[in-house]
Amino acid sequence: MEREHEEAMREAFTELDRLTRRAYHPQASEADINRLYTEGAAIDQGWHFGPHREQWEFLKAVRSQWECEPDAVRQALRHSLGTPGGGLDAVQRRSIEQARILTTATPRSEIERGR
């Protein structure tokens, strides 16, 4: 993945995360939620069907894993750093770091929207 594509992916993912957080905000109306989900889906589909699908899906998965299983992510990262070759490339390691930052930045609201 070229550097400029990686930077674009990181910006798009940060925006997707921001839209998702706003959709879970307690004051978000149904219209807001629908608009935010539609905008987020457009971002996601652009990357999901693009040439860097694997890196995008890795970033999405590790973002979710940081929320649900942070110890497992830490262990995988330690293993990759301590093993020659490590199984993770530099883009994946940066994705793990981006996902960690986004996960710890502001916790998502615990409100269940039923979606």
Automatic annotation (TrEMBL):
Organism from which the protein derives: Nocardia ninae NBRC 108245
Name of the protein in its database record: Uncharacterized protein
